[in-house]
Write a structure and sequence with these properties.
This protein is α/β, with parallel strands linked by helices. It folds into two domains: about 5-205, Alpha-Beta Complex (Spore Coat Polysaccharide Biosynthesis Protein SpsA, Chain A); about 225-380, 60s Ribosomal Protein L30, Chain: A, CATH 3.30.1330.50. About 30% of the residues lie in helices and about 30% in strands. It has twelve helices and 19 strands. The protein has helices at about 30-40, 55-65, 80-90, 110-120, 165-170, 180-190, 210-215, 260-275, 280-285, 295-310, 330-345, 360-365, and strands at about 5-10, 25, 30, 45-50, 70-75, 95-100, 125-130, 135-140, 140-145, 155, 160, 195, 220-235, 240-245, 245-250, 255, 315-320, 350-355, 370-380. The strands form five sheets. Strands 1, 4, 5, 6, 7, 10, 11 and 12 form an eight-stranded mixed sheet that branches. Strands 16-13-19-17-18 form a five-stranded mixed sheet. Helix 5 (about 165-170) packs across helix 6 and helix 8 (about 260-275) runs parallel beside helix 10. It is elongated and about 85 Å long. The structure holds magnesium ion.
């Protein structure tokens, strides 16, 4: 039985934590998007439209390199707009079956697709659905009521329709409403949508924990990597200094191209070191005027994003500042808090320590400040 497919990969994925949007995260060496496209191609899709954002068209080419039978098109602000853009790009006949699929559900199998297409033969739509097993509560922090779960189901994707049915249903859908799936659109148009057996493996990877669970499911082994970073800046005239993302009033400042936050620079280098991504100077060349006076927060955030793009996460970080003055102790908690925020880590995974060199060497003579950082990062093997 032939069918075409629309894979929606145009969301912003704000719930998935820092890093690339969900479809572009790596799982077992392949992007989530590639998992989905490969699965539907393997199940027999003869035309696959990947709907993404304009700025991800090149990324789609890279993520799907070597695969055939797919094309990318630009979606809209809402999911419904993206689905309709995908439908418009399909070249199949009116009675062609089409599967609409969320890219963030990578584990579609031939069995799922066969069941949907078989069910569609006697209906206007077919949707994999799981009965709700947990007790349902309505409330906001406090439970207002327990909701009867009899007859309630969780709808998954892919969802199957005939091309003309779905196009017609979308044309009749009110412009000011936002459907959360495509079955809702066909239901509203009076269509008869049936359910096929859902599967926990069709889960949508939404939160960071979902990705960790997906890795366990595919037997992905993970390794722990260590990185270290070192940075020094010279003291000069000034009235405040930035250290570990915190501004401290002082009778001198550190001289540098950016804000000269040696703590953040050392930490950024440690993270880049752990994932084999060069050093801070390569990513943010001092010769580039756009980094003049820049807040070093963004250097750290960039490195944290690179870890996430590899499907990794930072486990802990330990920064040591070496200086006679300013005294770090009273600022240490604020520094830990800021670093924890920037790395999206619990506070007890972040350490800031300080030491003097008892008057010896360049830090002892207060010519400059030295910062050292060590991090551990967990990534797929
Ligand atoms: Mg530096």
């Amino acid at each position: 039985m032939t069918f075409s497919a629309v894979i929606v990969a145009a969301g912003s994925s704000t719930r998935a934590g820092p890093g690339a949007p969900k479809p572009w995260r790596i799982l077992g060496g392949r992007s989530i998007l590639r998992w989905s496209v490969e699965a539907l191609a393997r199940a027999g899709a003869d035309e696959i439209i990947v709907v993404t954002t304009a700025d991800r068209m090149v990324a789609a080419d890279e993520a799907l390199a070597g695969l055939s039978g797919w094309r990318a098109t630009v979606g809209g602000a809402a999911r419904a707009d993206s689905v309709q853009a995908g439908l418009a790009a399909l070249t199949g006949a009116d009675d062609q079956s089409v599967l609409i699929h969320d890219a963030a559900r990578p584990f579609v199998t031939q069995g799922h697709v066969d069941a949907l297409l078989a069910a569609l033969a006697g209906a206007d739509g077919a949707v994999p659905a799981l009965p709700v097993a947990d007790t349902l509560k309505r409330g906001d922090g406090v439970i207002a009521e327990t909701v009867a779960r009899d007859g309630l189901w969780r709808a998954q994707t892919p969802q199957a329709f005939r091309l003309a049915t779905l196009r017609r249903a979308y044309a009749a859908w009110p412009a000011d409403a936002e459907p959360t799936d495509d079955a809702a659109v066909v239901e509203r148009a009076g269509g008869r949508v049936v359910m096929t057996p859902g599967d926990p493996m069709l889960m949508k990877l939404t939160y960071p924990e979902d990705f960790a669970m997906a890795e366990r499911l595919i037997g992905q082994t993970r390794i722990v990597r260590i990185g270290q970073g070192l940075d020094a800046h010279r003291w000069g005239p000034g009235d405040a200094v930035w250290l570990c993302g915190v501004r401290i009033d002082h009778d001198a400042t550190l001289i540098g191209h950016s804000d000269a936050d040696a703590g953040l620079h050392a930490l950024t280098d440690a993270i880049l070191g752990a994932i084999g991504e060069g050093d801070i100077g390569e990513h943010f060349p001092p010769s580039d005027p756009q980094w003049r006076g820049a807040s070093s927060d963004r250097f750290l955030s960039h490195a944290v994003g690179l870890v996430a793009a590899k499907g990794g996460r930072i486990l802990n970080a330990d920064v040591t500042l070496v200086c006679e003055r300013p005294k770090i102790r009273t600022h240490r908690d604020a520094m830990r808090q800021r670093l924890a925020e920037l790395m999206n880590l619990p506070l007890d995974r972040v350490s800031v320590k300080a030491t003097t060199t008892e008057g010896m060497g360049f830090t002892g003579r207060e010519e400059g400040l030295l910062a050292q950082a060590v991090v551990s990062v967990e990534t797929p093997a």
